């Protein structure tokens, strides 16, 4: 096996290690295969071309791996692949005294057990304490916890 073939094996091993680090994290076939290719390439160099060439390939593999990891782990390397959008959504908050326990409204969506309710013309997230509530069913506010309104069907006691 020529030195070029061995170098290609080592480069393929380093590539598989990068795939393991950045694309499919965890210990899997790519990481194990990458390590085996690198070790196999270095071992074959020692076997076929002697200890001097083997040592050069070992040192070159270590230096090449460190250089590639340095450039791969720099923060500016991945900026071109990152999304640059901002999330402008917000969590609906319920103002104090806006909705009170005992207020009436109706379910905009099916509450199973969470869905949308409309109380006093305010759309908010509602949670049923009595199982599922069908859409357009009248509900009564039982309690308010943060941004969620706990409701029960109006006809149920």
Textual characterization of the structure:
- It contains 2 helices and 5 strands; from the N terminus they run ααβββββ.
- It is of the alpha+beta class and 157 residues long.
- β2 (114-119) and β3 (122-128) form a beta hairpin.
- The chain is rod-shaped, with a radius of gyration of 31 Å.
- A 5-stranded mixed beta barrel has the order 1-2-3-5-4.
Layout: helices, strands, pairs:
Blueprint: H1 3-22, H2 29-73, E1 104-107, E2 114-119, E3 122-128, E4 138-145, E5 148-153
Parallel strand pairs: 3-5
Antiparallel strand pairs: 1-2, 1-4, 2-3, 4-5
Helix pairs in contact: 1-2
Helix/strand/pairing category: alpha+beta
- Relative helix content: 40-55%
Unreliable runs: none
The gyration radius over C-alpha positions equals 31 Å
Number of distinct beta strands: 5
Oligomer: single chain
- pLDDT average, as an integer? 87
Which terms would index this structure?
157 residues, alpha+beta, five-stranded mixed barrel, 5 strands, rod-shaped
Concise account of the structure shown:
The protein has about 160 residues and is of the alpha+beta class. It is built from 2 helices and 5 strands; from the N terminus they run ααβββββ.
């Amino acid at each position: 096996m020529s030195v070029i073939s061995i170098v290609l094996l080592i480069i393929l091993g380093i590539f598989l290690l990068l795939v393991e680090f950045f694309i499919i994290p965890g210990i899997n076939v790519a990481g194990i295969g990458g390590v085996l290719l690198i070790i196999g390439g270095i071992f074959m160099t020692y076997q076929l071309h002697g200890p001097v060439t083997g040592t050069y390939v070992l040192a070159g593999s270590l230096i090449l791996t460190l250089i590639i990891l340095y450039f791969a782990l720099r923060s500016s390397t991945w900026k071109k692949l990152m999304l640059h959008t901002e999330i402008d959504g917000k969590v609906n908050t319920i103002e104090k005294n806006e909705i009170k326990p005992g207020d009436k409204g109706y379910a905009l969506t099916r509450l199973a057990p969470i869905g949308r309710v409309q109380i006093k013309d305010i759309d908010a997230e509602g949670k049923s304490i009595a199982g599922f509530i069908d859409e357009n069913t009248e509900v009564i506010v039982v309690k308010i916890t943060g941004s969620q309104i706990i409701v029960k069907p109006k006809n149920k006691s």
